[in-house]
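Exercise: predict the fold of this chain.
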Amino acid sequence: MKPGIWRQLRLFVVALILLSANGAFIEATPPLLAQDGSTGFETAETNLEQARAQAAEENPTVLPAVSREFTLHATQYPLFIGVDDTTVPAYQIDVTNSVAITAFVGFQVWGAAYDAVNDKVYFNGGSTLYEWPVGGAVTPLGTITDVTGTQQSMVGLAFYDGMLYATKNIANEAIWAVDPGTLIATVHIDYVDADLDCGGFSADPDTGTFYCTNDDTMPHGAGLVIINPDASVTPVAAYPAGQTDIDGLAVSDDGFAYLVIDEPGSIYVWDFVAGAYATPLNNPWATAEVFSAGAWIPTGVQTPTVTLTKTVGTTPGVCATTNDITVIEGTEVYYCYEVTNTGDVTLNLHDLVDDQLGPIFTGLNYALTPGSSIDTVAAGLSIPAIISVTTVNTATWTAYNAAGPSVTATDSARVIVEPSAVSVTGMRANTSGVWSIALLSAFALGGFVWRRRQR
């Protein structure tokens, strides 16, 4: 929201118009005087968007229970788009030919962002946040609020490094950080309200750079801009000819930005390398709406996986190469556990538990990068056990990040116990059999002598 009483008055007037229309949103609402120090006027579309956001903040959407779900192919249709009409499906787009397939239907989509680690799209309708596991069913997560419990209606979403970010078009206009677990939002980058009107919002999946589609003509010009960490603004590209209001944005991992409008027409494609607009895509909208959103689902979705190798030996301070050994009862053995990151996600936290020895460690902080390994000996741990009976034990290694995901691997080792020469229980011959035979003969002879004395 731009500062000043004029914007409050403008929202009040638009709200009266909406009420008089019994909830039907009037696309032809005339622009009202802004007095915000920038353009002097707001477009009818901006007025309508701000009124919708204000209404959603005061009266959050009732959470739906279920959605229709469809089988999707993220590698072929990486561009996710949606609008704020529950009767219009959200789609995934093949960016090579504009072919669209339905993602789900039944929800308003004001903003959207993709979490690559957990392979899901976050989206919102006003202050209500949802998640959509790609190809699955939509789940409502709850209401976005600030630390005081006040509902916050967002119009754009972005995701980077485990954190959800959002923008507003009413006070306080800023980039907000939204905790995906608690849904509590805090101001992250507080830019000047009057300088930007960010509808579309996205983060570069590789660098985390924040981009927005800015509808304000002053002072930065309407178009694609970067919002820097210090709240300064770097213009990137003016809107295509004829466009003044673009509410959806998706920045890809291969050098493009997709600008999604909320009415029938094009999806505009900005080529960062060429510094120019590429051939636009066709959007699937049949009607004009108020909000639109976009998110990029990378073709190479990250897959976290690990393997575990458990070994056992009799030499301390060494990671043995065997997982099956034979020892005399009472022998002290030493276990070693080696985990390897076989996926493409760095995993920073680790738990290890053995079904016979119990927890080995919990929350071990170690950056296990893709392709790397770490074992317990190298980590400075000695894990001994005195074995008296044949033992098979299974270990489970869990590797994870604080914001997800969590992956596990298991492996087992066996220690076969061979009784000592003086053992009675479970006795059996050693390699030559001499000691066992001698011991049995001694017992037999002793019994014979004892019986003779009894007589």
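Check your answer against the key: The chain has two domains: 62-296, 306-418.
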